[in-house]
């Protein structure tokens, strides 16, 4: 049956079956995918997972304590691995090995759940919203990293406790991203450099952990985290724990890229099987990375673990080593911003192309060249829209520079729908799992538990944002 379906897809695509058999084209009519294998795919997933969220893990473990903090990291890792494997089976439909391809996350939701309110409509809202906030967070974090370089090399800042405005760094990075977002094939170039990005992340890990060890332990740590007392009330402790759940959820939020990554796999083997192995390798590596950052950071700083590890060790010598760590993070996040922006860019530009298919402003492509080698096509709509998007993200980051609270909000609004709800519901629909069976109940239990955690994290992040708004004015926050 699967072989018959495959032959039907080849026939409908209008391809010569011999060319498909010879490997010149895949069954969907596109040139044969020859790029990614198991190792490069797992490396790409690791690059997609690890980002700004890793910087708050020491603070999260401090709020939750050794028992709950470590357990939460492991539970989120296992849930993410399980739902990512469910999503891998949704790349092709109806058969997970030879069915029709879904090129994006939204395509997979549409194919498996249809255009109903609970399916396509919700996905079309959740994914761009989460991607937009995620990109805003990267704007915020990149400026922090560059600013800490200046802090580290300016000893007077340590002595005088001087403060600097966020805005110049934000504007400078915004201008850089405007330029980079206009370069064709740039996301593919960053994808090709995923191994370099992983090396950067590991270098940051070793520098960060080494700095934590240099600071030395001896700080008070407990099994239950920050203790209720003079400095913190029971209510504040609860809000912080909820916020920590959101921060950890954000650290594991990357599912919206998995379908696109799977679409680059070679077709020689069933993509879902290769993707599942890549998920295991990526989550194992990432969880180890997160455990080291969270546990080493808590052991070094104790109950006073910083909300952002970059700002936490930014005032400790050797300054040149701190500079390197921050520069590594900037390099990684500049590329990650461009990679994660593509779903938003693609969605808006595809809609505009369908809506104004006869407009020269939207559809016109104008060949340009820089020198003799670098040639590309310019488009006025692409130039205008992408510039406006980066300006809005940068402005939002300037107005709301609240790192931990925004991380928790991002994790709360993004993790449950994109990482848990849609993969579970698609898998149920695809496998036609009957209601009230043991498997249906188990899947829905995961859904409900993750929803409740997301709800708690949302409340914690909103409470934290309200405090931040009371303490700082928009566009005037200092560090």
Please, could you describe this protein's structure?
The chain has helices at residues 2-13, 17-21, 38-49, 57-88, 105-113, 117-153, 155-160, 167-181, 186-192, 194-215, 234-251, 258-262, 271-301, 309-312, 319-355, 360-363, 380-399, 403-431, 438-471; strands at 92-93, 100-101, 366-370, 374-378. The protein is mainly alpha-helical. The chain has two domains: 1-32, no CATH class; 38-92 and 126-471, Up-down Bundle (Amino acid/polyamine transporter I). It has a two-stranded antiparallel sheet. Strands 3-4 form a two-stranded antiparallel sheet. It is globular, with a radius of gyration of 23 Å. The N and C termini lie far apart (63 Å).
For this entry, give a set of tags.
479 residues; mainly alpha; Amino acid/polyamine transporter I; 2 domains; two-stranded antiparallel ribbon; 19 helices; 3% strand; disordered N terminus; Amino acid transporter transmembrane domain-containing protein
At the first level of CATH, the class of the largest domain is: Mainly Alpha
CATH topology of the largest domain: Amino acid/polyamine transporter I
Whole-angstrom Rg: 23 Å
| Oligomer designation | single chain
Helix fraction?
over 70%
Main beta sheet, described? 2 strands, antiparallel
By CATH, the architecture of the largest domain is named Up-down Bundle
Low-confidence stretches are: 1-21, 117-125, 127-131, 155-162
Mean pLDDT: 75
Query: Structural class per helix/strand content?
Result: mainly alpha
In total, how many beta strands? 4
Number of domains: 2
Major beta sheet, strand line-up: 1-2
Number of helices: 19
Shape summary: globular
Series of secondary-structure elements, N-terminal to C-terminal? HHHHEEHHHHHHHHHHHHEEHHH
